[in-house]
Amino acid sequence: MAVVVAVLRHLAPLGPRLTRIPPHACAGGRLLQHRRGLHLSSPAAIQVTVRDALNQALDEELERDERVFLLGEEVAQYDGAYKISRGLWKKYGDKRVIDTPISEMGFAGIAVGAAMAGLRPVCEFMTFNFSMQAIDQVINSAAKTCYMSAGLIGVPIVFRGPNGASAGVAAQHSQCFAAWYGHCPGLKVVSPWSAEDAKGLLKAAIRDDNPVVMLENELLYGVPFELSEQAQSKDFIIPIGKAKIERQGTHITLVSHSRLVGHCMETASVLAKEGVECEVINMRTIRPMDIEAVEASIVKTNHLITVEGGWPQFGVGAEICARIMEGPAFNYLDAPAVRVTSTDVPMPYAKNLEDNSMPQVKDIIFAVKKVLNI
Amino acid sequence: MRKMLLAVLSRVLQTPAAAAAAGKTGAVSEASRVMVASRNYADFANEATFEMKKCDLHRLEEGPSTTAVMTREEGLQYYKTMQTIRRMELKADQLYKQKIIRGFCHLYDGQEACCVGIEAAIKPTDHVITAYRAHGFTYTRGVPVREILTELTGRKGGCAKGKGGSMHMYTKNFYGGNGIVGAQVPLGAGIALACKYFGKNEICLTLYGDGAANQGQIFETFNMAALWKLPCIFICENNRYGMGTSVERAAASTDYYRRGDFIPGLRVDGMDVLCVREATKFAAEHCRSGKGPIVMELQTYRYHGHSMSDPGISYRTREEIQEVRSKSDPITLLKDRMVNNNLASIEELKDIDVAVRKEIEEAAQFATTDPEPPLEELCQHIYFNEPPFEELK
Questions:
Q1: What would the 3-class secondary structure string for A204-269 be?
Q2: A308 close to A341: Cβ distance less than 8 angstroms
Q3: pTM for this entry
Q4: Source organism's superkingdom (chain B) (predicted)?
Q5: Who among A109, A147, A155 is closest to B183 (CB)?
Q6: Would you call A152 an interface residue with chain B, using a CB distance cutoff of 8 Å?
């Protein structure tokens, strides 16, 4: 027993990473395999970090359509502030990958204008915190123009970049904008978790004729996920507006997006040992929201919690709960839904405060037990 | 051959009633009509050369020519277009006061020479974007008066099906109509980037007002446009007032043509349609030759207040408005030039006025009787090329 425990401790650093392998790729007995460090992948699947998945998506789309181009701060010669666009400037040159000065409002507007005139820009915000400088262009110029022009002028643009909390970057660099952008008709808003999400959603966003805001997460960039053979294809697209059931369950539904899907998966693993089977839904898209997926799940599990990195007031979880209340799934709830969110404070710097201001696995477990009354 | 063409032209420009009368009624009237008709094509000059104010230059060795040739045909077309815009805006004023037009309505009367002069200097394949005082440009870019007025009255026959209103009118190569002050300037530079990207020798003309000229995003745009040599003409329509604030009270430097700093600029008499035309030709050539952006300041004036909710006399005197009307009105200036240089007769121009009024009346009639858009339109066009939302909870 002691030896087993020692082995487990030794392997512990690998643990968290491995729990993020999508369950469908593993055969049964996955928990045991996690501890022993085995990957049980399907034949041609490979491990790809979110960063590389995004890079591939950009590369493939730049190659596929000449009208696609990338602009933003440091995207070209620096290879991207977070190296997402590594190698692209070398391959495609100045015309397709453009370094901008530090002028968010200006270059976001330029990107929107280019989209109106027939190009397909990918506009990178170094983080979405800086997008606030340019938010007028995103909302008033990009999101609303198709409607105001009665369909005459489309704006096929993608705004992408890291969103939400990082690590130790404090209040001005840590805000989640899912609720802000999710509020506006005319925009599509996506929030990937896995490498497959990142690749498929970015490709879909670039091919979409509408303005799409893609909220990535800096802490996920370095995380490897399994990319199935299908997902490696150059035409692999994830439809915008469809959620994914990452883990089947029967007792409670956990709905989340972005990095916290990983926390939910961990929560599910821990609770499975106690006999509680959680169904984990990865929203993938914030707007248009796939509420039907949540409803179908609630019909099965009768319990709901939402988990997000943003603040509670007017957040993504609030919207999900409201829609569930208004819809047929309400009658299937055996208890009120609970939201797990970041604490309603600007992000502090000190590590202990920072850790306690964001949802942790223990918080999600606590919420599940509260809803299930166990 | 030319005389025949002129005869056809003068017949076309006569009112239909006059043209019919010329062929039909009694001998005396017919004789006098025929005399007038023959006077049309025999006595008028084909073209004339005009002197214009010299443009102030910034970082330019030379500017546009101070003389311009205008043909009779051009003159008549500029006159008709400016008069149409003038009467259309006055009709909009009337409809607004009758509460048939709602919300914001920013009128362009007084500034007609700007949009007409600009359009005369560019191609339909070039691109234009402006702010909310957009009805004049909407017309010169090709949207019929009827569709403009119907958009103002919010009916389904409007150029945006009634969903845009005064500030959001669009057509091919015309990107509005933008409500957020200054936001259209980066958009215009983006359109210019697309022009350069596609390599079809097209340019973008990006307009903004003296009020917008102090917006930070404009300077961000100047920087990038100059860095990347975007084929963009930045045009400041300086009508001396940003809403109720005169230029002296808003800008530390009112030399708007210099505000592009490292970007060359010129200051143009915006009340003279020929001066605007020549300056725009010069600026367009600058951009097309790959030299990068250029700034143009058009000194102009609006007779109405900032919008229909502004009487426009609390921050300027009636005397000032009257002075501009009597000394610098763009339509009067053109009319005097044409008559004094034998390019047209007063009667002929009066006939055009009558025809224009008729066109505006008919358009207004349509605009006030066309039905509102069907309720299904509410959820259409949220996304491009996608079916409308069924859900509207």
A1: HHHHCCCCEEEEECHHHCCCEEEECHHHHCCCCCCCCCCCEEEECCCCEEEEECCHHHHHHHHHHH
A2: yes
A3: 0.88
A4: Eukaryota
A5: A109
A6: yes
